[in-house]
Design brief:
The complex is a heterodimer of chains A (374) and B (291). Chain A contains 9 helices and 20 strands. With 374 residues, chain A is an alpha+beta fold. In chain A, helix 2 packs parallel to helix 5. In chain A, 40% of the residues are buried. Chain B is built from 13 helices and 2 strands. The longest helix of chain B has 33 residues. Classes of the chains: A alpha+beta (374), B mainly alpha (291). The interface between A and B is medium-sized, with 25 and 17 residues.
């Protein structure tokens, strides 16, 4: 199947505010119908990236190209871009009723007045908002969840090709947020509309997105599917920002120093850890690796399965998280690691480790990610 | 137990007493200097005129009936026209200024300071400055004649226009500040949302900015219109004898004309009209708010 041309494309896009670079040579392409997330901590440039796409900001003069449907739109105003936008603050017009809010865009687009009521009536159905109940209310008479549904309906009623969402669920409580996540995902699939979603919540991005661009310090740190990002984080930043990661470091040993394409990494205390060989590894250079808590296991000293990496330590806090148990282990070398164990039921089948136990933290050599130098 | 602790305990047990303690001084002040004089004023307005000022006993409504005299109706109509013109002009001049200040970023405080700067000199001095500008041999006429725009000096001073100019100058900050406050509170996301929905600049102003700044416009208009209705100093100095307003009429009745009851009746009638207008306006506004 031939790949469709991208609906949105950033080519080396930069945007500065005074001296500060908010977006620095960012490139990515979004496929039609995709649920694409821009994920990063506050100040990483994700919102500016979205605003560049929306047309509220213009790239620097030599700041690359923003393309929509193949056309360069750098200088086009938002109303010339066929985009819809949903804001964290909802941005509903407080002086207009729900109905008039939804009709606003249709009126601005000179839709024949005879068509408007019908479209306004149908739109709230998309976002599961009973039209009759809310039509005449003002935004301040609605709950947060209802407001965000109205904001969605207001954007969707124009049938944009791209819907931009700037932390739209940020102001909602957890339960409602989870519910809306599912609904947004369903909407994206049903309408076939491209969704571009800005969030700082990594769980949310993992749960909803087809692909994620993780941003850090005005750049894209990594771009990929949720599984790629979580299981193959390329940098320390990505490893730590998405999910939890235990980091180990050492000096790369000789290629082929371990069996089956593994390479040893020499630790400060003289132990070797085996890692999958990686083209970026050169003998004698510093290496950092990330190991997810659930990739680790705990064994009694002397029970380490053959061929696994193992580091000695002492059990510290045991944290009950429902699905999993997190065990914090202080390694002999001083670092602390988190080990996630499946919860087999603490009442019938309790964990065999308690605070103070001497343990080995073990993992299979292929269950780790070699990080690129930052 | 110290007195301080006892006092605090007393108010902690009786929240209403705390509220009264805070309201008390202000209420007392209003009672002494507003409610009582107002009652006296109303009383005077239905008594007979005293020969040398003051009042003499006996109930009458003749002072209210005097309004039907065309002379006084003309004064009332002129007062209304001047107050409306002042309010309208303040709005036209003040709204753009407030808009620019609200969007001025780090210059905002400096610009606000400039707006209130005229308050640092007395209103009287500023009104005299207007005379210097407007009079026959004044600054404006000299410039116009110097440029050859006009051959003979224009009659600028002692006209209704001069009164409006003086009032606009005096009250403009009262229009700018509330409009600024409402514009400054405006959530800029709303303008972005409107733009994403297809609204161009004018449409965004007309459909979002303007309606959301109307409370400021209303407050500013009241703050200008009401004192303009009662103005007497500005029309006295800039309007001359031909441009008498209700304020001058009242002043005159308590002064040279020595007709205190009539002066009281004019004052009270003006107050009732302003108050009634305000009530109607509030009703209309609340009704719109619920629609």
């Amino acid at each position: 199947m031939p790949e469709l041309p991208p609906i949105v494309e950033f080519r080396q896009v930069s945007k500065s505010f005074g001296e500060a670079r908010a977006v620095d040579a960012v490139s990515f392409a979004v496929r039609p119908g995709e649920f694409f997330s821009l994920l990063g901590p506050s100040g990483c440039g994700k919102t500016t990236t979205l605003r560049l796409l929306a047309g509220f900001e213009t790239p620097d003069d030599d700041g690359g190209e923003v393309r929509i449907d193949g056309e360069v739109v750098n200088r086009r105003r938002p109303y010339e871009r066929r985009i819809g936008m949903v804001f964290q603050s909802y941005a509903l017009f407080p002086h207009l009723s729900v109905e008039r809010n939804v009709a606003f865009g249709l009126e601005e687009h000179r839709i024949p007045p005879t068509e408007i009521p019908g479209r306004v009536e149908r739109a709230p159905g998309l976002v599961r908002l009973a039209p009759a109940t809310y039509a005449r209310r003002k935004p301040h008479q609605l709950s947060g969840g209802q407001r965000q549904r109205v904001a969605l309906a207001r954007a969707l009623v124009l049938e944009p090709t791209i819907l931009l969402l700037d932390e739209p669920l940020g102001a909602l409580d957890l339960k409602l947020r989870k519910e809306m996540q599912l609904e947004l995902k369903t909407l994206n699939r049903q309408l076939g509309m491209t969704f571009i979603y800005v969030t700082h919540d990594q769980e949310e991005a993992l749960a909803m997105s087809d692909r994620i661009a993780v941003m850090s310090a005005a750049r894209v740190a990594q771009l990929g599917t949720p599984a790629e990002i979580y299981e193959n984080p390329r940098t320390e930043f990505v490893a730590q920002f998405i999910g939890e990661a235990n980091l180990f470091g050492g000096v790369a040993g000789r290629a082929g120093g371990g069996a089956g394409g593994l390479r040893p990494i020499l630790q400060a205390d003289g132990r070797d850890l085996l890692v999958p060989d990686h083209p970026g590894l050169r003998e004698g250079t510093e290496v950092r690796i990330a190991v997810r808590p659930e990739w680790l296991d705990l064994c009694a000293p002397g029970e380490v399965p053959p061929g696994e990496n193992a580091l000695p330590g002492t059990v510290g806090d045991v944290i009950y998280l429902g699905e999993t148990m997190h065990v914090v282990v202080t390694l002999a070398a001083g670092a602390r690691v988190r080990v996630a164990l499946r919860n087999e039921g603490q009442l019938l089948n309790p964990l065999r480790w308690t605070r103070g136990d001497a343990v080995m933290v073990a993992w299979r050599p292929e269950d780790c990610q070699v990080l690129e130098p930052a | 137990m110290s007195i301080r602790r006892r006092l605090l305990g007393f108010f902690a047990r009786r929240p209403a007493a705390g509220a009264w303690a805070l309201l008390g001084p202000g209420l007392l002040w209003l009672l002494l200097f507003f409610a009582i004089p107002l009652a006296v004023l109303i009383g005077y307005s239905v008594l007979h005129r005293g020969t040398y000022g003051g009042v003499s006993p006996g109930f009458t409504l003749e002072h209210y009936r005097r309004f039907s005299d065309p002379i006084y109706l003309a004064v009332a109509a002129r007062t209304l026209r001047i107050a409306l013109a002042t309010t309208g002009l303040c709005l036209l001049l003040g709204y753009p200024v407030a808009y620019v200040i609200a969007r001025a970023g780090r210059w905002r405080n400096a610009l606000l300071f400039l707006v209130i700067l005229p308050f640092w000199t007395s209103f009287l001095v500023r009104t005299y400055a207007m005379i210097v500008l407007l009079r026959t041999g004044g600054v404006i006429n000299s410039v116009l004649m110097g440029l050859g725009v006009t051959g003979a000096p224009l009659d600028l001073l002692y006209t209704p226009g001069a009164v409006v100019a003086g009032l606009v100058y005096g009250y403009l900050p009262f229009m700018i500040l509330p409009i600024y406050a409402s514009l400054e509170r405006l959530d800029l996301d709303l303008l972005d949302a409107a733009e994403a929905l297809g609204a161009r600049a004018w449409s965004r102003f007309r459909r979002v900015t303007l309606p959301l700044s109307l409370p400021g416009v209303a407050a500013g208009s009241l703050l200008v219109f009401i004192p303009a209705l009662g103005a007497f100093l500005t029309p006295d100095l800039l309007g001359g004898a031909k441009t008498m307003m209700l304020g001058n009429l009242v002043q005159n009745q308590f002064g040279p004309a020595r007709n205190w009851p009539f002066g009281s009746a004019v004052s009270f009638a003006l107050m009732v009209v302003v108050f009634a207008g305000l009530m109607v306006w509030l009703r209309v506004r609340d009704a719109e708010g619920e629609a």
